[in-house]
TrEMBL record:
Keywords tagged on the record: Hydrolase, Metal-binding, Metalloprotease, Protease, Zinc
Cofactors, names only: Zn(2+)
Protein known as: Archaemetzincin
Record PANTHER family: ARCHAEMETZINCIN (PTHR15910), ARCHAEMETZINCIN-2 (PTHR15910:SF1)
Annotated source species: Xanthocytophaga flava
């Protein structure tokens, strides 16, 4: 009897020990990946006057702080990105949204689905007219009255792209986008990103669209502004500062993301690389090649 008890204790202890080792290995492998990727990234430089960090005092959110703060995760089967299009889109603008949807699918590794504007939604309510951009929608009305009531049960987030200009509050001139992290809804305007119908500006509009959407969805998973590296999660005061921001995450933000979504870093990098291969963007293909090589080496 005593022997059996002893054997059982040994067995349970052994299993616990194995579990602890495998948890530690998993944890350590993300640390190692972060370390291997670090030399490929630039530390954030001192901000120039007028840049985001010159005007906003932001604190560094380490991976440990992020995990301890219990970030928003894909609880209860909420594992899809839903996209709504609000307004009239030209064929080129439709192409921007569909390419952005594909990019978000590959970046976040989450299925992307479209949802229509609800028939009874009056998104023009509270809109106002501007001389330069025409009708300007109330971004808060879109979040609260159009998006939040139709948030699908399996949605990680519901985001809307619009061709209308947006304003957040009556005393503000405009805003590129607005998101409610609590309600997991967000709206972004492509109105001020350039003219998608002009072939010379198409790529710029696309790049600004994916930078904004990737950044804001990152916030929806509780990732704060990155102050340590040049990173897609850097804050930016205007579209020109945004243009200088990478489309990719720094090693620490990537670790937060992959830990949160329980994803493999190499698979993330391989997926996003496949997008840039399709786009023939050799600079980014090179960056992803170097990243994959760095984490594959012993
Ligand atoms: Zn932000
Ligand atoms: Zn970062």
């Amino acid at each position: 009897m005593l022997n059996q008890k002893y054997v059982r204790t040994l067995l349970v202890g052994g299993i616990l020990c194995l579990l602890m080792i495998s948890c530690k290995e998993k944890k350590d492998s993300r640390v190692v990946i972060q370390q291997k990727l670090t030399p490929l990234h630039k530390l954030k430089e001192q901000p120039m006057p007028g840049e985001w960090l010159a005007e906003h005092k932001e604190t560094y959110q380490s991976f440990e702080t992020y995990v301890n703060k219990k970030p928003t995760r894909l609880d209860g089967g909420r594992d899809k990105i839903y996209i709504m299009r609000i307004g009239t889109f030209s064929p080129a603008e439709l192409q921007i949204v569909s390419k952005a949807a594909r990019y978000l699918w590959l970046f976040y590794g989450l299925q992307v689905k479209y949802v229509s504007v609800p028939e009874n939604a009056n998104f023009l309510k509270d809109s106002r007219e501007r001389e330069d951009t025409g009708i300007q929608l109330s971004a808060s009305l879109i979040l609260n009255d159009v998006l939040a009531p139709v948030l699908p049960g399996d949605a990680a987030v519901l985001i809307a792209f619009t061709t209308y200009d947006l304003y957040p509050r009556p005393d503000w001139n405009y805003v590129f986008g607005l998101a409610s992290l609590k309600k997991r809804v967000g709206v972004w305007s492509i109105n001020r990103f350039g003219c998608a119908d002009n072939p010379k500006e198409f790529d710029q509009v696309f790049q600004r669209t994916i930078r904004t959407a990737t950044h804001e969805i990152g916030h929806m998973f509780s990732i704060r502004h990155c102050v340590k590296y040049e990173c897609c999660m850097n804050g930016s005061n205007n579209k020109y500062e945004m243009d200088g921001r990478p489309t990719y995450f720094c090693p620490e933000c990537l670790r937060k993301l992959c830990w949160n979504l329980k994803q493999d870093e190499k698979q993330h990098l391989t997926r996003v690389r496949s997008f840039w291969i399709n786009e023939k963007n050799y600079e980014l293909i090179g960056f992803y090649d170097r990243s994959i090589k760095a984490i594959s080496e012993d």
